[in-house]
Specification:
10 helices; 10 strands
């Protein structure tokens, strides 16, 4: 994962915030004449030779960024028809974010939920071992095959605000079901943190093939329904419902001030994630008030 991220994701994300270590440039804000008591290791000898007087380069180190990832492990995330399930893709996204933060010396904490309660909390760590252990813990949290349980993402996001106490970033990795109160919960979290909502999709949830009568089962409620996929009216109605839900979700996240990233099973997720992280979030004035 680090090899995949190093050249693509990490390179595209450079420059969105100040680094934690001073660079090799000679900006005046980083240099000043030597004063008695300065650490001799701060002396910039080439610059001192050019300036004709002892000059020191004062380190301007930004505090460590603490980020949290909230991973949805509900039964709906166990669905997948191309290249794995949505939960497996969520674990890859988690590994990619962890690799980028680790390369910069930042820390990542991991929280996971299956039905709304916080079922897993891994404190922020900046080492590879901590990220790998957190991903393994998320994989073990996946519900057994056939086990139901409706997602309560609102409760999980609200609890995330009590766990992430210091200002930082929160990455929500979920299929983001539309639920009453989700906009308020994400907006409240965004008042303190930078929120990135990574929506995990699968193509078969959005485009039904013409295969005749099919019995479908809801992975969370267990409800079954017989549908005729060869009926053009059903397919048109299904496509219209998906499009309306997508528009409502995008508008809700925009009002809440969260960045919206869409990844899909079986497709390249690195570039969409990089573009989403590089795009500034937009928050309406009503939420800022």
């Amino acid at each position: 994962m680090e090899l995949r991220v190093a050249r693509r994701l990490d390179g595209l994300m450079q420059g969105e915030r100040q680094g934690r270590r001073p660079g090799p440039g000679g900006e005046p804000s980083l240099t000043r004449p030597y004063e008695p008591g300065d650490d001799v290791r701060w002396v910039d000898w080439p610059l001192s030779a050019r300036a004709g007087e002892p000059t020191v380069r004062v380190p301007e180190i930004e505090p460590v960024l603490t980020a949290w990832a909230l991973v949805d492990c509900s039964p709906s995330m166990a669905f997948g028809t191309r290249g794995g399930t949505k939960l497996e893709l969520a674990q890859e996204v988690l590994a990619g974010v962890g690799a980028v933060l680790r390369r910069r010396g930042d820390r990542l904490g991991v929280v996971a939920t299956r039905a709304g309660d916080i079922d897993l909390v891994r404190p922020p760590r900046a080492d590879r071992r901590g990220v790998v252990a957190a991903i393994a813990a998320v994989a073990r949290l996946a519900p057994p095959q056939g086990e139901g349980g409706r997602t309560d993402l609102v409760r999980a996001v609200s609890a995330m605000g009590r766990i992430a106490r210091h200002r930082g970033a929160v990455v929500i990795v979920s299929d983001l079901p539309m639920q009453p109160g989700l906009e308020r919960a994400v907006g409240a979290l965004g008042r303190r943190h930078e929120v990135i909502a990574v929506e995990v999709r699968d193509r078969r949830e959005r485009h039904l093939p013409d295969v005749g009568p099919v019995r479908l089962r809801d992975l969370e409620t267990g409800a079954r329904r017989l549908v005729d996929t060869s009926d053009p009216r059903f397919r048109d109605g299904f496509a219209a419902a998906v499009e309306a839900t997508d528009r409502a979700r995008a508008a809700m996240l925009a009002r809440a001030g969260a960045r919206h990233v869409i990844v899909e099973t079986g497709d390249d997720w690195l570039l969409p994630l990089a573009r989403g992280l590089a795009r500034p979030a937009r928050r309406r004035a009503a939420l800022r008030a």
